[in-house]
Amino acid sequence: MSLVDVHAHFVTESYVDAARSAGHDHPDGMPGWPDWSPEAHLALMDSCGIAASVLSVSSPGVHFGDDAAARNLAREVNEYGAALRAGRPDRFGHFASLPLPDVDGALAEAAHALGELGSDGVTVETNAGGRYLGHPDHEPLWSELDRRGAAVFVHPTSPPGAEALTSGRPRPMLEFVFDTTRAFTDLALSGTLTRFPRIRWIATHGGGALPLLADRVELFRTAFGDGSGTPVPEQLAGLWFDTAGTPFPHQVPTLQRTLGVDRLLYGSDFCWTPEPAVRAQVASVDAAPPPGDGRTWRELTTDNARRLLTRTGGH
Question: Tell me, what DSSP letter sits at residue 266?
């Protein structure tokens, strides 16, 4: 049974040049930019038993301070990603980048990507310039994506004040986990998840700390609020989660106990996760005790991907 990788990244030379020009020589505190090519990605997929990968641009996204430049860069990387998808529909899918916090630009790019390019969904960062996803200004975008029943892949990025928080350490180590938690807590407490139920939200890295903190968030919602509305754990159980990072031996079993794994998806995080680490992660998935329903984790995540993304997951 081959995997479907919903958390896979690409970069282009012009995208990296634009990011470096904006000051992102060490994006999110990482040592530098990864090398990537379609050929190298396909070789890794073949060696790890990955049938299809849904490609997206990772943090820091496409908006570096100028709305017009962000719109142009989003269009450029989306047309490149969609061309890869069109050229190898048996192996590649595509989540289109949106230039938030420019909501009008994001609406236009979502329409182009989903309506014309045939992208499998869209990707946004957990915050855009410090503005989290439950902010009222984002409502027109969520309304349109809900109308389309779109998949929204939420990728973590550096939080506001990251330099002071991390003491020079790479932000993906801890802050990406916590920013995913912040973003989906904000979506739940703002009512966004319940107001737009047709959006298929994908929480990366196993949802960060959400499985551990869902009950605590619900405690504060009920103890210090009016307690009305859908309980937070119930809202979070409706999300899709991927395995990028270190899913075993501890994270996925915790997710299974608290929020369930009927929407768990495989994610490699290649090319930002180096090839040896991807191989080790796949080995940990294959070696983990099975989920207990007669399937392997490969079978479970691939079946889930087929439900989420009919075209890509069906390969």
Answer: B
Predicted TM-score (pTM) of the model is 0.96
- Beta-sheet strands, E only, within 44-83: 50-56
Rounded CA gap, 209 and 206, in Å?
8
Mean pLDDT taken over the chain:
96
Helical packing angle, 67-87 and 103-112, nearest 10°: 20
How far is residue 151's CA from residue 308's CA, in Å, rounded to a whole number?
Answer: 8
Residue 107, burial from CB neighbour count under 10 angstroms (0-12, 13-18, 19+): middle
Per the listing, tokens 């969609």 go with: 82
- Under CATH, which number does the domain 3-313 receive? 3.20.20.140
pLDDT in tens, 23-50: 999 999 999 999 999 999 999 999 999 9
Edge-to-edge order in the sheet of strand 151-155: 3-9, 50-56, 92-97, 121-125, 151-155, 200-203, 240-242, 264-265
- Sketch the domain layout of the chain as residue ranges: 3-313
